[in-house]
Specification:
mainly alpha, 2 domains, 6 helices, disordered N terminus
Length: 183
């Protein structure tokens, strides 16, 4: 018999199956558990599939990488990592500000997906060894983006995948005020 803690752990293999059943045929895209840093690798041939590889088998990393995929358009999905730049941990202030601007929308979608999957969400400033970051200001900008999405609508694939998650995890929720509860 599973303990309460074991039952509460999200099943990443289940998420992989869920995403792949949604995206493999419709978008030629699969989600893959990786061992290292996340990366998106476009298909090399018409018969190949695009691969969203997420970090270390973490559920939250999978949702985050799916979020990037949902935002990327058709042209960006033909490029490794959607053609975006990434500077690893240790960014200076201007690099961190650029990183946070680029991360607001994906983290807002990750927040919504997390709620639908019944898993906790935390913003990630992803700069442990760099300049000091204002986590609360970044969290506020992500929350504002969540509110904007709820009022104006999500990107098409994000709306579709959110619906898939809500149905699978049986969590038809009202999203307002659920992403950022006081710790």
């Amino acid at each position: 018999m599973q303990s309460i803690k074991e039952r509460q752990q999200p099943d990443v293999d289940q998420l992989i199956t869920l995403f792949n059943s949604y995206a493999q045929e419709a978008y030629q895209t699969i989600l893959v558990k990786g061992c290292d840093e996340p990366i998106y690798i476009p298909a090399k041939t018409a018969d190949d599939v695009h691969r969203i590889i997420f970090a270390h088998g973490f559920f939250s990393s999978a949702l985050h990488e799916i979020s990037h995929w949902c935002i990327a358009g058709a042209r960006r999905r033909q490029q490794v990592d959607y053609g975006y730049w990434y500077i690893e941990d240790g960014r200076n202030t201007s690099q961190q500000q650029a990183f946070e601007r680029a991360e607001i929308k994906p983290q807002a979608l990750e927040c919504l997906f997390s709620i639908a999957c019944k898993v906790p969400f935390q913003v990630s400033c992803d700069n442990l060894n760099g300049c000091e970051v204002d986590r609360f200001a970044f969290q506020s900008r992500v929350k504002d983006q969540v509110e904007w999405y709820l009022e104006h609508g999500l990107p098409a694939q994000a709306a579709e995948f959110l619906q898939v998650c809500m149905e699978y995890y049986q969590h038809p929720v009202c999203f307002r005020n659920q992403c950022f509860k006081a710790a």
